[in-house]
Amino acid sequence: MARQFVGLDLGTAHTRIWTPEGGVILRSPSAAAIDSESHRIVALGADARRMLGKTPAGILAFRPIKDGVVSDFEVTSLMLEAFFTEKQIRSTFRRPSVVMATPYRITEVEQLAAENAVLEAGARAVGQIPAIYAAAAGAGLRVLSPRGCMIVNIGAGTTEAAVISAGGIISAKSVKMAGERFDTTLINYLRSNGELLVGDATAEELKIRVGAALSGIRRESARAYGRHARTGMGASLTVTSDDVFRAVHPAVDAIARIILATLENVPPEISADVHSYGFMLCGGSACLPGIDGALAQATGLRVTMAREPMDCVIRGLGKIIRDNRLWGEGLNLRTRSLF
Asked: Whole-angstrom Cα distance, residue 49 to residue 43?
């Protein structure tokens, strides 16, 4: 199997690809810019992300993945085709078989959209694995052990939490409350408290530079530039870590409630395991300073940060592809083929 499949983590913010020969060979923003007439790719990845909201007439820039699922089929397939070609995964005589990670609570329509986009991009066959299970494997949790373990993955579009035992998902929850929601709450906070209007890119930059999810963390302040809400003129405002904390605190609390809700209906013995060992935290938005401490305070559970939190899903896919045993019980690989 290891020589037949490649792994694909098609995330809201980033796309990652794993191959048996090279490991993680692609980490790129999930963004593409296309010519509106010819429908050809004119920019990809980081270059396309910089064009969001700034394109001239005739050029359209997209982030085609929303909340972990395909929101624009055509752009997603064009983006993936370009990635496959760039990394020499796809050619005239070579078509990859792809195992992709998808949200646990994905609908049948969303499953088909994801599969068709990958097939349209040039794949020979495509199968799906729950991203939260792949994240647990990639974080180093013993997913085949009968001892219960818990994983929480905070991405850009969604947060997923799952309790896993003996190769199966015992309980899982998903909520559209993650990195992009942090950005939105910061935009609203600056508008309400500083009368400053900023865009998504500025909010994300502020979150990365001075963000904190726990009170008392002191980082450097940053100057935010935007437009005054009343006058419409250019304006600026100094933003501190405390400002970001106050903005994102409600969203972090909502994530904590989802974590606790995931544990409500699990068997008592598995619940005891989780309360003894805590949960593993991963995902790009888990890198927000202090979020592990904030979740530990809110849930009363011990929180362990994964070693490479942003790569847990794609590395987990690699482990699953290499080791048949990690498919576990009750996990069905959905596979569709062109032939």
From this structure: 9
What does the pLDDT read at residue 330?
46
- Model pTM above 0.85: yes
What value, to the nearest 5°, has the Cα angle with vertex 309 and ends 140 and 210?
155
DSSP string, 71-83: S-HHHHHHHHHHH
CATH code of 5-133+314-337, in short, is 3.30.420.40
What's the longest Cα–Cα distance across the chain?
62
Residue 280 phi/psi, 5° resolution? -95, 135
DSSP 183-229: HHHHHHHHHHHH-EE--HHHHHHHHHHH--SSTT-----EEEEEEET
Q: Topology of domain 141-305, per CATH?
A: Nucleotidyltransferase; domain 5 (3.30.420)
Does residue 326 carry a pLDDT above 80? yes
Contact 77, 42 (CB under 8 A): no
- Can you tell me whether residue 266 is helix, strand or coil? coil
Distance from C-alpha of 291 to C-alpha of 294, rounded to nearest angstrom: 5
Determine the Cα–Cα distance for residues 220 and 330; give it in Å rounded to an integer: 48
d(CA 145, CA 164) in angstroms, rounded, equals 9
Domain ranges in the chain with CATH number 3.30.420.40: 5-133+314-337, 141-305
